[in-house]
Amino acid sequence: MIRKFLSQPYPLEQRQSRKVVVALAFGMFVFAFLFFFRPFGLYALQQDELVKITTHFGIICTASLLFNFFVLPQFIPVLTDDLNWNVSKEISNTLWNILTIAAVNTLYSSFYLGSGFSATRLLFYISSTLAISILPVSIHVLIKNMILLKRNLKEAQHISEGMHHKKRLTATPDATLTINSENKNEKFTIPAGDLLYISSADNYIEIFYVENGSIKSKLIRATLKSARDDLRSFTAFYRCHRGWIVNLDQVESITGNAQGYRLILNHTDVTIPVSRNLNVEITNRLSK
Q: Does domain 162-286 sit in CATH 2.40.50.1020?
């Protein structure tokens, strides 16, 4: 049961402004906790010194989180893989944030406060940081996962019940579409209604389509942006996620998980993710 829970999808925060707010909020929490409760010997400090040191610890917390949010993902791409993010990765990432803050706190204490660096002191700050943060962080992860899962499932069911299965192709039913490749001599042409979805694959896109009742795919060197431009005259094709373009005429229903909505298509078991900032638009496009 625990393993199943840890493998559940979890929303990876992608909004830059939200990351800044989270970093500032945790920094303020650290400052307030240390200032008002004065643990770990802080009660012995004079008021001015207490304000200065607790402020420094709050700034360290915020700066460490900002580094992990904005700098580290540039070197570790898996930290931006929102499609495969789950509860266990969120907990691991949170523990890494805690360890980072603890390590910087140790350096601050060793060199600024003159307490000297040692493995014992590092363990002290790790355990102290864990003691302060593990409970609120764990509760936050659990509650957020349950709320988002319940909400998204309910809203997805509501959208599915109200879906209007009309055709959205602006061209005639037998119209064809062409997706151009960066290789000048290569292009891909199929009947417009047979295209299911397109996904990005590094410097390529993979086109999934129906041919004689079977699902087939074609890999060509192109970007989703260029593919969307090629499909501009067909209103059925919609970029619902930074890595996916979907044929809305092929959407059978919608389901949801803690990460957001997922589109269920005809002909395939693959579910297509929807970016959270597009939830309202996808609802409008699919509803009556």
A: yes
Residue 164 amino acid letter: H
Mean pLDDT of 67-93: 89
d(CA 250, CA 261): 16
Query: Is pLDDT at 215 greater than 60 in this prediction?
Result: yes
- State yes or no: pLDDT of 247 exceeds 90: yes
Residues 200-214: b if buried by 16+ CB within 10 A, e if exposed = beeeebebbbbeeee
Q: Which of 126, 124, 117, 77 is nearest to 97 (CA)?
A: 126
Write down the domain spans for the chain: 2-150, 162-286
Give dist(CA 258, CA 87) in Å, integer.
Answer: 10
